[in-house]
Design brief:
Shape: globular
Structural class: alpha/beta
Oligomer: single chain
CATH superfamily of one domain: Thiolase/Chalcone synthase
CATH architecture of one domain: 3-Layer(aba) Sandwich
Order of helices and strands: EHEEHEHHHHHEEEHEHEHHHHEE
Largest sheet: 9 strands, mixed
Number of helices: 13
Length: 389
């Protein structure tokens, strides 16, 4: 199947965006991606806009806001895509399907979220809409409370992993210093991340503030193209393997600490790519909470179940380890504007393969994997990327 390729991208800094509203974020990111691809707006055949919202913005019909980039985009098909925290990857996959169907040669994918303009209570309520509301909406602590339950179940089965979680947080904050788009560019150190303090209080159960990704505003965009178009572009990052796996929404219907959907999606994408985990140069993975990254080590096959702590405590996932994980700083340092995360991950992985990642560059990066999930490993997306030219 024709998978298409990424030929251009643009990434705005994540954090509090007081000077830009949702429309401005969409327009700036999309215009930058078109320019980076070496195209004119008229060259775009279709547009996908990823936006979770669920209460973050009064504007809940954003697809045609992308037409504000340039009058030449007027009357182009534009579609909004949503799949919780995996919204960005869902938009990428829809663009790739349009290319595979032969309906478009060049697709613009833009994702944006603005979370900081509502109160913390509203943020928590909005995020819980990505849970199974009938059974999980009353969990104390919002989505942090949901992952508190996951952490407690994991600790009950495999023992207290607080030091491993602190090491993951410290690694990602250290990596985030080199990421110019990251919301938090401070090396906090493992001692700070492992210690409860006024500046690092408990948020929910065993999870401290350093275990939780921050509330963020942000946008990112990329241009997808078919193979023939991509090979004539200034750059081309191809999709060697793809997988989407959805699991039951209610946590009660599955072993929630096994991340079975994540495990299956990774296995399918690696199989389609014809490679193993050891062939990857790096992974960008969905560390909305540090416990998620820990379980994802096991889901990707770095360690057996219950032994994920080895991967971080023995340095396997550090920048100079056997498989660098979240060289960008991950969601933990970069920020997690919900709808924008998946495209951000694709852009940052593409930069690694393009050799344009600057100070966060992984040496000799040739093959990148990324995992983006919606909810508690409910919507699971994996891309395996390689440089075509």
């Amino acid at each position: 199947m024709q998978k298409g390729a990424i030929i251009g991208w643009h990434h705005l800094p994540f954090g509090k965006q007081d000077a830009r509203d949702l429309e401005a974020l969409i327009v700036e990111a999309g215009a930058g991606a078109i320019q980076h691809a070496g195209l004119e707006p008229a060259d775009i055949d279709a547009i996908y806009v990823g936006h979770f919202n669920a209460g973050f913005s009064a504007q809940d019909f954003p697809a045609s806001l992308a037409l504000g980039i340039d009058p030449a985009l007027r009357f182009k098909p534009a579609t909004r895509v949503e799949n919780a925290c995996a919204t960005g990857s869902a938009a990428v996959f829809q663009g790739l399907k349009e290319i595979a169907a032969g309906s478009a040669k060049r697709v613009l994918v833009i994702v944006a979220e603005q979370m900081s303009r509502v109160s913390p209570a509203e943020v928590g309520a909005n995020l819980l809409k990505a849970s199974y509301v009938k059974e999980e909406a009353d969990i104390a602590g919002g989505f942090a409370g949901v992952f508190w339950r996951i952490a407690e179940l994991y600790f009950q089965r495999y023992g207290d992993q607080s030091e491993a979680l602190a090491a993951i947080a410290a690694k990602n904050h250290r990596n985030g210093v080199a990421n110019p788009y990251a919301q938090m560019r401070r090396d906090l150190g493992r001692d700070f991340c492992s210690t409860i303090s006024d500046k690092n209080p408990l948020v929910a159960g065993p999870l401290k503030r350093t275990d939780c990704s921050p509330v963020s505003d942000g946008a990112a965009a990329l241009v997808l193209a078919d193979a023939d178009t991509a090979l004539g572009a200034p750059r081309a990052i191809g999709f060697r393997g793809l997988a989407q796996v959805n699991d039951f929404l209610p946590m009660a219907r599955r072993d929630v600490i096994a991340f079975e959907g994540c495990r299956l999606a990774l296995a399918q994408a690696l199989s389609e790519a014809g490679v193993g985990l050891s062939d990857l140069s790096l992974v960008e993975t969905h560390d909305c909470f540090t416990i998620a990254e820990l379980i994802e080590y096991e889901a990707m096959g770095l360690t057996p179940a219950g032994l994920g702590a080895r991967a971080i405590l023995e340095g396997w996932t550090e920048m100079d380890g056997r498989l660098p994980v979240n060289a960008s700083g991950g969601l933990k340092a970069k920020g997690h504007p919900i709808g924008a995360t998946g495209v951000s991950m694709h852009v940052l992985a593409a930069m690694q393969l393009d050799g344009s990642a600057g100070e966060m560059q992984v040496k000799d990066a040739a093959l990148a994997g990324l995992f983006n999930m919606g909810g508690t490993a409910v919507a699971n997306y994996v891309s395996i990327l390689e440089r075509l030219r």
